[in-house]
Design goal:
DHBP synthase, 10-stranded mixed sheet, 2 domains
């Protein structure tokens, strides 16, 4: 802790804690909650003041939309227009680490700030038991970006939330370390096809197995979903990628045979590297060295998502 802010209330993500958190959310409060990807900063998605509190706590640009979490497909279909492709992906990957960007229903009770004025909405049905219980007990769709200051390193433990947000969040549910450790894949379903807006645990190949190949076009400069800003996940120090050894003044994050000061995965396992990515960036940010170096990560599979986050951290 830096001493710059007060610590938030932290309680276990057990039945009693979730009941308290659900009551707080219904009253318009902010709750940090574990998901299978990273910790989310949740507020009721139908309340403009509650959503504004997310933006204030994160210092988040108001053109960056928020993901709305729902307990099931039936709830999702009251908020967005689902076609057969969307239902197919929901059946295959929900609950799980896939977010879909879909047309917003005109009658959906969603605060305008959630979509940042876009005609689409980003929806996810999470798998983490604490988040699922919170959705069910609150009876609300929950807007929940990562529970950290905007542009900073995403939190994979309750302590990361406390260090980043302090008492700007009303309550932190401590459910231990997040399993995936990297944010959800975001896919946009368009009339002419589909695109990955943010790589994540669900790979492009996995989606293509259901929908066929993606559109071969880039949406330059258009922010449709979280994590698309060119500079994001920043640890507050210069970051050098593709490093095989540390230079003077660098904290080296290793991978496989490159050991470093800490390692994403000594075994060279990309899934373990994804789970440890933000943990290692937090360690590097707190280290005395003024710069960070990161060993090369293979680009295939979940490695593409890891490298996406690292390139933005280095931007």
């Amino acid at each position: 802790m830096t001493g710059k802010h007060q610590l938030p209330r932290m309680i276990a993500a057990d039945a009693e804690g979730i009941a308290e958190a659900a009551e707080l959310l219904r009253a318009g409060g902010l709750v940090a909650v574990p998901t299978e990807t990273v910790y989310g900063l949740a507020a009721r998605a139908d309340s403009a003041p509650a959503v504004a509190a997310i933006y204030r706590a994160k210092g988040r640009p108001d053109f960056n939309p928020l993901i709305v979490h729902v307990p099931d497909l039936a709830t999702a279909e009251t908020i967005a227009e689902f076609d057969e492709r969307a239902r197919q992906l929901a059946q295959a990957f929900w609950p799980g680490a896939l977010t879909m960007v879909l047309p917003l229903r005109l009658e959906a009770r969603i605060a305008a700030a959630v979509t940042a004025g876009l005609p689409t909405i980003a929806l996810r049905c999470p798998a983490h038991p604490a988040m699922r219980s919170l959705l069910e007990q609150s009876g609300l769709p929950l807007a929940a970006p990562s529970a950290n200051r905007s542009g900073g390193v995403s939190p994979t433990r309750a302590g990361h939330v406390a260090d980043s947000l302090g008492d700007a969040v009303d309550l932190v549910l401590d459910g231990g370390a997040c399993a995936a450790g990297i944010e959800s894949t975001i896919v946009a379903l368009r009339d002419s096809g589909w695109q990955i807006l943010r790589p994540g645990p669900v790979s492009e190949d996995q989606i293509a197995a259901h929908l066929g190949p993606p559109l071969d076009v880039k949406m330059e400069g258009r922010i449709e979903a979280p994590g698309q800003l060119s500079s994001h996940y920043a640890p507050g120090k210069p970051v050098r990628l593709g490093a095989t050894s540390a230079e003077d003044g660098e904290f080296l994050i290793g991978f496989g045979p490159i050991a470093g000061d800490t390692s994403l995965s000594e075994r060279g396992d990309p899934a373990e590297a994804a789970a440890r990515l933000y943990e290692c960036l937090h360690l590097a940010a707190a280290a005395p060295q003024p710069r960070i170096a990161v060993a090369p990560i293979p680009e295939e599979g979940i490695g593409a998502a890891i490298n996406d986050r690292l390139r933005r951290a280095a931007a």
